[in-house]
Amino acid sequence: MVLLSSAVGQLPAMGFNTWNAFRCDNVSSASVLGAADALIESGLARAGYRYVNVDDCWSSLALADDMEGSLVAADNFPEGMAYVGEELHRRDLLFGLYADRGFRTCAGRAGSRGREKRHAQQFAEWGVDYLKYDSCYAPNFFRKGAIKDYKRMRNALGKTGRDVLFSACGWNWWYAVVEPKLAHSARIAADCDEWANVYEASRTNEVLGAFARRGKFNDPDMLLGSSPRAAAYLSPQRSRAQFALWGIMTAPLLLGVNPYDLSQYDIETYTNEEIIAVNQDPVARQGVVVFSTCPDWKLKDYWWCSPWSMPADVRRDWTKMLLTLAAICLLSRSLIARRPRLRVRSVSFVLFSIFAGYAGVLQYYKPTLHACTQVWAKPLSEDRGVALLFVSWDGPSTNVTCDFDCLYHAGLSLGESYSVRDLQNHVDLDAPLDIFDKTYSSLSASLSADGDAKMFRVFQP
Ligand code: GAL
Question: Per-residue pLDDT averaged across 267-277, rounded?
Answer without folding.
Answer: 98
